[in-house]
Amino acid sequence: MIVHSYHVASSKTKQSRKKKPVKSGAAPRDTLICALLMHHFGQISPSDMCIAERQFPTRVRADLQKAVEQIFAGGEGVRLFCGVRQEYGHEGIEFSSLLLHESHYPPVAVPPQYEEIDIGEENPIRCLKSGLWLLQQDKMRYAILLAPALQHGMTNGIRFQIATASGMQGVEIADRFFKTLERAVNESHSYRGKILSLEMERNYLGRSAGIKVHKLRTVERDQVILPKKTLALLERNVIQFVQRRERLASYGQATKKGILFYGPPGTGKSHTIHYLARALKGHTTFLITAEQVGLLGEYMALARLLQPSVVVIEDVDLIARDREDMGSPCEEATLNKLLNEMDGLKEAADILFILTTNRPESLEAALASRPGRVDQAIEFPLPDEEGRAKLIRLYGKGTELSDELIAMIVSRTKNVSAAFIKELIRRSVQFQLERDTNQRIEAQDVDNALDEMLFSGGSLNVKLLGGNHGE
């Protein structure tokens, strides 16, 4: 973006300042925004102006910045650009205050200030905090103001205002500008197709996030170790469903869907979500934890904006357990919010819900037993012998495991989770490293690891690791 000088003082002005010092607390005349606006609009009085406004959510700030940069990229028509500062502007900056002549703390022109927004790419987006453009198109002069939309001192959006002379030309200028912003928000290039969650605080790098972009580990198709029946259900109800969405819609069929993943802890539910997040090309994935369910309305607004999308709510039993087990009206209100959001989606919404739980028996029937909210439940059982052998090879990649040792581990890990096998291999490698430096795991390494996991740590340790004490 071309940044034009926000302060131009003549030699006469400089001399006059030497003779007449500015009073304490007052701003130099040529930095007052009202003076700049009066000079820009000339004979046009405020009563002959028209001010149009649009307010956008803070979450789309990065895309708005890209649109603004594109609009003003060449600097055509820009007579002046500056930042804006106003003392005690608790209700935000707007043209009605910029045009005031008599103000104890008048808005002043300052160098533009930027804030870095992390969008999950190599470089963050530098977003303008507030700015004023004085512009001219043909003989028509107008001004555009960008500023935070504040309420009681809290930012609740991004405000754009356009001040023009009254008349159709001014309406057309404002309409064209707002349509460009709308198009940028609808396209949402900054976040579309990524894996997201909402944040309320800044990160440790000092960048403002608002939306956090996750970089999940890469999980390939052959790394999803599940029984054949489970894999077939997963493929048909997720992968193939998405692939055939367009044709389903042509038959008048709904393109939204709800899937419930259930099973003991550590059986691969989250692992499979990592795989699906990358396998569903072009989908925006939202990861919602139980403590973030209060933001569900905002999540769903973004999911509709960035569709096709996947909305993942892990441990859904924490917010959707049976009403009889709830202890307060707040819990029931949270459940109703989830049900209403799932019900409120149009049939043509390209949104896939994936809910996970370790305790399906505790779920509210209105969620788990009603088609249209959850259309398919998929069980993630403890791995069978074939599955345990595949898991051992997967997590033992990079080490030397003989077929005899793999068979021995399979026979001794009946009724354990995938997470248990992953930890068993890690501990076996650790014991092997303590013994010598080669890469071959021996039976004694596995014995030591099993003893530590199943017996030395007690029954609580077995439960935490997903094992079965006594096997």
Task: Give a topology summary.
Blueprint: H1 11-19, H2 33-41, E1 49-56, H3 61-71, E2 78-85, H4 95-98, E3 108-110, E4 114-117, E5 125-128, E6 131-137, E7 140-151, E8 154-165, H5 168-187, E9 195-198, E10 211-213, H6 228-243, H7 245-250, E11 257-262, H8 269-279, E12 284-288, H9 296-305, E13 309-313, H10 329-343, E14 351-357, H11 365-368, E15 376-379, H12 385-395, H13 403-411, H14 418-435, H15 443-456, H16 458-465
Parallel strand pairs: 9-12, 11-14, 11-15, 12-13, 13-14
Antiparallel strand pairs: 1-8, 2-3, 2-6, 4-5, 6-7, 7-8, 9-10
Explain the overall architecture.
There is one protein chain. This protein starts with 10 loop residues before the first helix and ends in a 6-residue tail after the last helix. Strands 10-9-12-13-14-11-15 form a 7-stranded mixed β-sheet, with helices on both faces. The protein is built from 16 helices and 15 strands. The protein has 471 residues and is α/β, with parallel strands linked by helices. The longest helix has 20 residues, at 168-187. Mean pLDDT is 83; it is low at 1-27.
Trace the largest sheet across and list its strands: 10-9-12-13-14-11-15
Note the overall shape: elongated
Number of strands: 15
Quick one: biggest sheet?
A: 7 strands, mixed
Helix content: 25-40%
Low-confidence stretches: 1-27
SSE class? alpha/beta
Distance between the termini: 67 Å
SS strand fraction? 15-25%
Summary tags:
471 residues, alpha/beta, seven-stranded mixed β-sheet, six-stranded antiparallel β-sheet, 20% strand
Would you summarize the structure shown here?
This protein is an alpha/beta fold and 471 residues long. The chain has helices at residues 11-19, 33-41, 61-71, 95-98, 168-187, 228-243, 245-250, 269-279, 296-305, 329-343, 365-368, 385-395, 403-411, 418-435, 443-456, 458-465; strands at 49-56, 78-85, 108-110, 114-117, 125-128, 131-137, 140-151, 154-165, 195-198, 211-213, 257-262, 284-288, 309-313, 351-357, 376-379. The protein has 16 helices and 15 strands.
